[in-house]
Design brief:
This protein is mostly helical. About 75% of the residues lie in helices and about 5% in strands.
Amino acid sequence: MKYSKDHIATAIAILFHSIGLVGMFFFSETNFVNSTPLHLLLMAGLLFYTQQTLTKPFIFFFLCCVITGIGVEILGTSTGLLFGEYEYGTVLGPGINNVPWIIGVNWFIIIYCCGIAINTMLRNISDKLSTELDRPMKRIKGVSVIVDAATLAVFLDWLIEPVAIKLGYWKWLGDGDIPLFNYLCWFLVSAFLLLIFHLLAMPKQNKFAINLLLIQAMFFLLLRTFL
């Protein structure tokens, strides 16, 4: 039996997330937490591996996510003008201005997977209706990709936040509560990156990206519930 890239990547993602869950629940939590940067690099690598073609627009989008992600996080941690008053721990590795480099990669993973998921859903709906979208409908679809995918990204951040705090990825200053302002900023930054995603002419069909989104959602839901 010949396995597709999507099957191989999904199997690897399930394996590593499962190992992470078992390790953090039953063994040394610290060892598995410290491997987070390598884990995120592997997931990003699998997204590159399963991308239909590594076009210049796709590489440009990746760089936009990484640079924008690191940039807004530096602004947030330095001034509190974005997200709120917070700071990163040391477990995510080296960075710039106390913001780990790997955070930019994490922004890419989340935004790309959410964009692919919503874009695929809307394309499937259009195919089932068997209708050719006219210009107004295409604009509505574009708005939906941006708004719905940004909302999905905020939901994923909501799942991640308490887990990240417990594992020492970052912490909120003051009373330690997660501010609603954080989620508003997440939506706005995500919407900006998803606008770029929508406008770029690059392949937007990646089954593994959808699978990875589901795997990560389940991973953090389990950690949020039981850790």
